[in-house]
Every structure is written in structure tokens, then in C-alpha cells.
């Protein structure tokens, strides 16, 4: 034991030890944040560019930090990866979104909602069972109005296993989309093998397609690919109406991005939707397309 101790002392690296300690503390803080109800979901609208219809909303996780204010997931999600909190928080997100969907349905807003789930969480044992339970506990939000966005960049080590889980979840009525499509290693394999309904074109391609011809080609190809495989396609990162006009031209009708709306607290969505309907900004897009 004495020798082992000596060896360990020899291997001791203060820099990596400091990092590991920081990570552990951060994870403790995040665990507490969940207990203290410091997480909230923001919602970003998805619209049909042809008629402006609000077709759904994506739930995006935020941490309302007691001192630092509202933090996006880029700040903290990496610390959760691979820990039990990944699944606990993932389950919380699903339940929270279903509860909100139920509230909106009661207020007369029939919204389709999507949540992001990590591939790790998806392939957890009993995932479909827990999802089914959550759906049953929120009967006011129909399962066919619920979608799971799987990160396409996430390495799904065992595709056959993932297919089984997806099929099991689909039997509950929920839909799947591949998020950030085009950025992963195996986009085409996933498209072919996974029973998914929707491709979400990654925002980096959409954002730059007005300046970058290659990105425009990629967006066009993904739209064509989606149609060929009978998948729904939606563009992320629609920052301006000009993006919208090009997407309409390419046959990509569903869109999401800052140019339409930023992610917002749930309480703001109803009034945003009313304002959006009166402004009718999409009409200009369709006129530009037809002229
Ligand atoms: P994502 O699922 O691809 O979500 C889109 C991200 O792009 C969101 O960032 C959104 O705020 C941002 N965005 C939307 N429109 C635009 C735009 O026009 N321009 C630009 N530049 N950005 C736009 P956010 O909320 O910071 O989330 C980042 C990522 O974190 C998400 O990417 C998703 O992968 C992950 N994430 C978010 N919420 C959850 C969650 O509840 N669970 C898990 N596992 N991951 C989550
Ligand atoms: Mg997403
Ligand atoms: Mg995305
Ligand atoms: Mg992303």
C-alpha cells in the first residue's frame, strides 16, 4: 500500500487534479440546482413559412443561476454528460414540457412540443417505459404532439439497439427528429437506419447559406434528401427574413430561428403568437417568392 501511495504521488498532476475537483464541485452544484428548482425551459417557436402557422415549439433548458442569471446549456451541459444527473435532468425536461403542453392545450393552444435528449439518455434501460409513464401522467398533451430531438452528432455506438428503443417509443405515439443534421459522422447511416420523422438542418449551414455557396448547396441537398426519404425537414438558425425567402424557394417550409423568435419563457409564448399573427411578416416572403 505504501508503494502504491508513492506511485500515485509520483503520478500526481496538480493541473488535472484541479480540473477534476472543479468538475466534481460543478456537478454537486448542478445536482442542488435541480433540487432547488433552478432549471426552467424556454420555448422557441417553429413556424410554417407558407402561411405563418405556429406548428410547434422546442423546449430549451436554462439554468436560472442565483447570482449569474439565466444561463444557456452550453455553460453547464458538458459537466452533466456521463453522470446520473444526465438522466435525472433529462426525465425532468420531458415531464416539465409535457406539463406545459397540457397547460397550453387547456388554454386552447394545440402545440406540438419537442425536447432534446442525449443519446446516452435514450439508450438507458427503461427509457421507453419511463417515457410512457410520463405521457400517461399528462393525458392533456397527446403523445403524437410530442417529439424527441436526438443529437445527430452524438455517437450512437449500437445502432441496432437504438432502433429498438426508437420503435418502442414510436409505439407510444411520439415522434423523433435528428438534430443538427449534417454535422455528425454518420448522418447518412442514421438517416437510413433510424426510424425518425424529421431532419433538422444544422443552423451553421442555414446561417451562412446567403454568403457561402457550399452551405447553400448543403441546405439544398438536405432538403432533397429529406423529401426523397419522405422525412419532414426543418431549418434551424433562420436569423433573417432573407433566410426564410431562400428556404421557401428550396422547398423547406418549416423554420425556427432568431429571425422568427428567440427562445422565451413559457408565459410569453401566447402573447408572442398573437403578435406574430397580426404582423403577418411571412406574407412578404411569399410575395417575394411569387414575384
Ligand atoms: P439545439 O437543440 O440545436 O438548439 C438550437 C440552439 O440554437 C439553441 O441554443 C437556440 O437558442 C439556438 N438558436 C436558435 N435559433 C438561432 C438562430 O437563429 N441563431 C443562432 N445563432 N442560434 C439560434 P441553446 O438553447 O443554447 O441550446 C444549445 C444546445 O444545447 C441545443 O442545441 C441542444 O443540443 C442542447 N440542449 C438544450 N436544451 C437541452 C435539454 O433540455 N437537454 C439536452 N440534453 N440538451 C439540451
Ligand atoms: Mg434541438
Ligand atoms: Mg440543432
Ligand atoms: Mg445544436
From TrEMBL:
Localization, UniProt: Membrane
Domain called EAL: residue spans: 23-277
Name the record gives this protein: EAL domain-containing protein
Lineage: Bacteria, Pseudomonadati, Pseudomonadota, Betaproteobacteria, Burkholderiales
Section of the entire sequence shown: 845 to 1135 of 1137
Amino acid at each position: 500500500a505504501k508503494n502504491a501511495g508513492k506511485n500515485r504521488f509520483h503520478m500526481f498532476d496538480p493541473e488535472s487534479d484541479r480540473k477534476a475537483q472543479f468538475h466534481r464541485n460543478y456537478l454537486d452544484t448542478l445536482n442542488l440546482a435541480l433540487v432547488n428548482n433552478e432549471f426552467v425551459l424556454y420555448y422557441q417557436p417553429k413556424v410554417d413559412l407558407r402561411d405563418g402557422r405556429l406548428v410547434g415549439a422546442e423546449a430549451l433548458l436554462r439554468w436560472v443561476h442565483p447570482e449569474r442569471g439565466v444561463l444557456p446549456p452550453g455553460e453547464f451541459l458538458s459537466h452533466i454528460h456521463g453522470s446520473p444527473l444526465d438522466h435525472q435532468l433529462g426525465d425532468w425536461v420531458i415531464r416539465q414540457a409535457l406539463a406545459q403542453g397540457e397547460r397550453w392545450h387547456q388554454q386552447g393552444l394545440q402545440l406540438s412540443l419537442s425536447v432534446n435528449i442525449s443519446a446516452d439518455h435514450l439508450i438507458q434501460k427503461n427509457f421507453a417505459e419511463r417515457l410512457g409513464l410520463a405521457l400517461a401522467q399528462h393525458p392533456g398533451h397527446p403523445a403524437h404532439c410530442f417529439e424527441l430531438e436526438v443529437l445527430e452528432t452524438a455517437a450512437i455506438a449500437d445502432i441496432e439497439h437504438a432502433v429498438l428503443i426508437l420503435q418502442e417509443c414510436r409505439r407510444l405515439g411520439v415522434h423523433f427528429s435528428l438534430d443538427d443534421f449534417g454535422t455528425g459522422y454518420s448522418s447518412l447511416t442514421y438517416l437510413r437506419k433510424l426510424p425518425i420523422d424529421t431532419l433538422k438542418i444544422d443552423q451553421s449551414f442555414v446561417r451562412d447559406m446567403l454568403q457561402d455557396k457550399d452551405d447553400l448547396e448543403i441546405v439544398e441537398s438536405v432538403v432533397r434528401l429529406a423529401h426523397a426519404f419522405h422525412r419532414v425537414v426543418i431549418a434551424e438558425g433562420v436569423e433573417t427574413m432573407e433566410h426564410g425567402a431562400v428556404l421557401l424557394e428550396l422547398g423547406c417550409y418549416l423554420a425556427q430561428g432568431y429571425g422568427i423568435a428567440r427562445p422565451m419563457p413559457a408565459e410569453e409564448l401566447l402573447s408572442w403568437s398573437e403578435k406574430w399573427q397580426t404582423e403577418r411578416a411571412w406574407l412578404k416572403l411569399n410575395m417575394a417568392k411569387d414575384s
